[in-house]
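Quick one: structure for this chain?
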Amino acid sequence: MKFPDLSMSTPVRLRDLIRQIRSAKTAAEERAVVQKECAYIRDSFRDEDNTWRCRNVAKLLYVSLLGYPAHFGQLECLKLIASTRFTDKRIGYLGAMLLLDERQDIHVLITNSLKNDLNHSNQYITGLALCALGSICSPEMSRDLGGEVERLMKSTNPYLKKKAVLCAVRIIRKVPEQFDVFQNSVRSLLTEKNHGVLLTATALVIEMCQQNTHALQSFRKLVPNLVRILKTLIMSGYSPEHDVSGISDPFLQVHLLRLLRILGRNDSEASEAMNDILAQVSTNTENSKNVGNAILYETVLTIMDIKSESGLRVLAVNILGRFLLNNDKNIRYVALNTLLRVVHVDQNAVQRHRATIVECLKDADVSIKRRAMELCFALINPNNIRTMTNEMLEFLGTCETEFKADCTSNMFLAMERFAPSKRWHVDQMIKVLTTAGNSVRDDIVSSLIGIISSSSDLHGYTARQLYKIIRNDITQQPLVQVGSWTLGEFGDLFVNGQYEQPHGEEHIQVTENEITDILERVLNWSISTVVTREYAINALMKLSTRFPNCSDRIQSIMTYYACNMNLELQTRAVEYTSLFTKHNLIRPSIVERMPVLISNSSSNPNANEQQEQIYQEENPSNDAQINHVPPNEPVDLLKLLDEPIQTNGSIHPHEQQQNPLSSNPLTDLLFGDDTSHNHLNNNIIPPMVALDKNGLRIVFTFEREDTLLTIHSKATNATQYPITNFIFKAAVPKTFTIELYPPNSTIIPANNSGEIHQIIKILNPNKDKLRMRIKLNYLFNNSSMGDEAELNTFPEQCYN
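Got it. Here's what it folds into:
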């Protein structure tokens, strides 16, 4: 039998192959069609069929786009590129861009063909070569062909010039030191009249400034030219060639604004030069269509990122406020996201739009709702804490379960910072726990217990309030845990009436047996979690000495639970039973009231009970005094500086390391990638690596104005798992005043794909050497993590 010569037959056209694949009814049928065609293409390549090579590679590229292997066509692409026909080169270069990349050695074989085509007399062939080089060039190809690209950037042909500039962007990205090759050519490009060339030139300058600090300083001299170009654009009349919805070339305007933002950042002179044009763009741009909104958005980012005037910043925030009233959900989301980034720059301006932001909490879109929630917490201050707490409580009662944990944690932090009194704080946190139900993190329970413990005048009152709630409902586990602990510690004060009666509420008379009944019911309820039952059994043991009439009853409960199937409950019950029998004499001293707990959070600058900012000064001569914490002082965080903590952080190379740091990551900050300036002595303060441990890295950058030091904190995560529920706390000696602003997020994405920013402001009136304690809490791979660190190697410029 004689088989037909497949190499002599006419191959299927690309459109016919597409039709066959689309007509396949099953995946198996589609695979059969593709495999059959790939087998034919392989045979054709093997037979060196030059006639249909172009068609076969085109079909192979389509097959590759569908996800099927097409690597066997790489060499055929190189053969097409070497062809003299334009149609062959077009498919060859397209194949090279799709099938080759810089990680494959075979791509270097294309270098000579690229060089020849870059010098070709046909502009379209040269354009193909530039497109391919801009897509697949490696550092080696960038160095070999950079001169050819720079020559084409000087061409008089705008078609080639803009393609060459885009190719240069890729080269600079791969080899930043090639900046010197293109520097002179870029300056002349910014004087071009062709908008396409101008657009690509701004893209190249942006890339250069991001890759090279010297380039940034050099191009700041061009700010007046860029302002003139932008002014010409917004003042020019109708141009059919560039008009988009009534706006002249919005793409070029956006690129110019982005470039101005980079050049004006941390430079007062450049910022001053662009203030007027930014005001013109803000007021003259129509916001009825998305084209205008895109320009206004870039304008807002530029205004808030440079050293702009306060009036201009208010104008930018007002633009975002108008965005919040837009019907388009995407625009509202962008506005909320941007306000969250800039709220620390001008909080008063953002406060004017608080009512609109609160309304966004009722939006059906969960993304908008989450951003609105984060922004609401960023807006809380001592003046609006009562109003905002009521708003967030209303939101907590209606929001989805996924929001409740974050909302509860943020409400706790806000009230801890700004609560007007301890009693109000305790009342509101009880409302939060009641509203949130079981969607409360464990750290909130322990923190609230710490607050109750430190409020000695509220012990009986708190026990009364919690008893009222849990006597009828023990389903809310976090609330029951707090209630069990409080009744175990201070139930006797409640029974004896040793508390201030709430105004307008009826008097509650309760007996020892009633409190014991509730705790026993919690302990016996099958749906109670193990942690809740542990709280209950501990509380009962505490009450065994406070309630002598119930001592025998409590002993029988302990005896019963000594045989419990849960190991933890059984162990506790056995130990407590032994206190009733073998060690009854020491039982009262063992279960006596606990000393004041040290809260794990930063102190509240507005609470009536607060006396100092955080920890005591060093006193090396008196160890007992070092470890003493006054009962009314909410030393949250970090105990005392005299208790060293082993750490493994490091400082910037500019600063000699003095003590190793131990902390497990994360601080936050806004715009923290800038190197701040000391406005007092004009010295640049070097950044400081506060922590670099287990993939978590925290970097401090500084900006100082006389005695006020602003620390921009940036936290990144190099691990493969995201860090969530991140909380950063800081404390300084009492001679300093510290203010922590809310972070821009509580999540640090994995693989350094994102970061958390936070601002810390420290007032140092005596210009003492700066010391700080930090504490971190977060979830990593669903595990709760925490760490503490002492930072005492701050750059000298921070305080001298």
